[in-house]
Amino acid sequence: MTEWFVALGSALWLGILTSISPCPLASNIAAISYVGRSVGSPRRVLLAGLVYSIGRALTYVLVGILVVSSLLSIPSVSFFLQERMNQVLGPLLVVIGVIIMGWLPFRLPSWNLSEAVKQKAAGSGVAGAGLLGVLFALSFCPVSAGLFFGALIPLAVRANSRVLLPAIYGIGTGLPVVIFAVLLVLGAQWVGRAFHVLTSIERAARPVTAGIFILAGLYLTARYLLGVNL
Description:
- It contains nine helices and no strands.
- It is mainly alpha-helical and 230 residues long.
- Helix 3 (42-73) runs antiparallel to helix 8, helix 4 packs across helix 9 (188-225) and helix 8 (164-186) runs antiparallel to helix 9 (188-225).
């Protein structure tokens, strides 16, 4: 039971950290700003923020279900992961920690939404907010890709959780967005202040999270890969 609580808490934190990382944070604010200018009433702004969060969260859930189910449905891969997960997870956590810190820069194939696409989606009101959530969720940057594919997916595979952990992760990615929608209703200046606060939190949380990943990875590597009893 304790392991499940740790797994759930880890998935939620990974989702929140993904959402407040520089690249996703900027896209979240941009999306809510676009939608907020078009939907008009404060109530619809809040609804649009919620729908955007749901669209983004559901995208992560569906991708997580697809990847985890694919890995667990292949007998040879499933058997390998069940037998060797701790050996694989150790070096992987070290690499993810290094990526989070930006010490191992790499570029992912990326695509940027054109201004016309953003305006068209935003002009569709609340429904367009959900579409923007889906599109921005699929625009992985190195940190968000590392957290999702390198941290959440192994966690979900290890826990044999096709739905729950990806869902908790998706909820975590949506929480800051709902907060931004509320602040946008209160006034644009509140969004700017929140951006600075979350940026400061992310800068402090990033090295802590990366350090935990690296230490845990070194421990798992020493114990399960090198056979060192600690």
